[in-house]
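During the practical work, I selected for study one protein's amino acid sequence and its backbone structure tokens, as given directly below:
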Amino acid sequence: MPLKYKKSNQHSGKMTEAIYLEVTEMAETAHKAKRRVSVFRMLKHLGVSRSGYHAWLKRVPSNTEKGRKAVKAKIQDIYDEPKQNYGAPKITKELRKSGEIISKRTVGKYMKQMGIKAQWVKPWTITTKDSDFSSELKNILDEQFNPERPNAVWCSDITYIWTIDGFVYLTSIMDLYSRKIIAWTLSKTLEVSCVIETIKKAKARRNIDKPLILHSDRGSQYVSKEYKHVTATMQCSYSKKAYPWDNVCIESFHSLIKREWLNRFKIRDYDHAYRLIFEYLEAFYNTKRIHSHCDYMSPNDYEELYRRLPQDELQLAG
């Protein structure tokens, strides 16, 4: 079957590098497939001279081109390491940490040329049923999402995760200071015991000797007697009815874990879902994934900086 090409409007011998690369790659592909193809017939069809093509094959890459390729290699490494989730802003930050002087626009252009991009953000919708305790449930947090210390404000939510074996449910608690997930539980039901277990895990792992607000939606699990008992030493705050933006940080996290990780897999059952969530949270999100809120540090590193800062200040004062 004859090969079909679109003729270029360029003059003979002055084709772009992309066309030269295309000719070379197609010739190599044909060779591997043991098909005969005439490179020079392609060149003639495209209006490119033999001498121009041979000159291109023998040319030595310029320093600019070498530098561009080196940066693209770094971009690919940074993109691959965090499970291919970073877009141009985060990759730019990581490049600058390594000493590269580069703009976000340039990184975005290179990523487009390389055919890579961050995972698409799928809009999330409201799934929680309200509990009808409107007059009793107060919004203490009032969308103040940037506390000055860890363990000042936690937020919690439950999300559905589809598996072939049926839905499972992820309950998470986030510390708003660092956006760290400090406790999580995966369950096969929506019973209140799953929320209680998650809160007990969080209390066991964190120092809550200072006042603490725990914010959630108005789901039945979060207004139960068991919930009120386990949070007796905390200030319970609740989102307004059918208004998820009051709890947007944890809602966004649940969208994030699905977009960046879970949606890539055909999850078989509870055990498969548990392994995937554990890998994302414990080996990536809390420990490695940089966050714009954390000045492009991981939640763990951001909290560690908070813990070190008072000691550093005391040493400087001495």
Summary: The beta strands are 153-161, 168-175, 180-187, 213-216, 235-238.
